[in-house]
Amino acid sequence: MTLSPYRVAxxxxxxxxxxxxxxxxxxxxxxxxARAGFGIVxxxxxxxxxxxxxxxxxxxxxxxxxxLPDSLxxxxxxxxxxRDLRRVPDFPTRKTMLLNLSRAVVxxxxxxxxxxxxxxxxxxxxxxxxxxxxxxxxxxxxxDALLAFLDxxxxxxxxxxxxxxxxxxxxxxxxxxxxxxxxRAASA
Length: 188
Known about the structure:
Layout: E1 7-11, H1 20-35, E2 39-42, H2 48-59, E3 64-69, E4 84-88, H3 91-100, E5 104-107, H4 112-126, E6 133-137, H5 144-155, H6 161-164, E7 167-170, H7 173-187
Parallel strand pairs: 1-2, 1-5, 2-3, 3-4, 5-6, 6-7
C-alpha cells in the first residue's frame, strides 16, 4: 500500500473527556479524513479520543500511522489493528516523528500531552522550521479559554499577530475537512 502524500497529524486525548460529543468529533474527524483521502498520523494508543479517531479512520479504509513511545508501553495499549505502528524511545522523538510525517496538524480536545504537541508544532511553524498548517476543532467550545489566552499574549506583546494567525479554529469536523481539502488543493 502506498502512503498518502498528504498526511495529517492529529493530536488528541488519551481520555474520552466528559461529554460524548468529544468522542463523536474524533469519530467524524477520523472518518472524514479517511474519506477525503488524507493519511493520519497519531499517538498510537487505542485509548480515549486517539482510539476513537483511529478506529473510525480504519473502518473507512484510511491510512493510519501510530507513533508510540516505549515509555508508554504498559500504560497505554498500542492500537492493535494498525499496520504501521512506529515505536520510538521517548516523547521528544514521538513529536518529531509526528511532525516529520505530516503536512498539517489538527488538535482535538485533550490534556497536557495534546497541548504540548500543539505548542511545539506552533513554535516550529512560527519560527519557520516546519511548514505545517495548524487547526483546532473547537468541539463544545473546548479551546475557547486557550484562544482567549493566545489573543491576550498578542495584546501583551509576547506573540506576534502573524504567529497567532498560524492556529486556525474550526467549529466542527466537517468544517475541518473542508478547509483541509482546500489547503491540499492550493498546495498541489
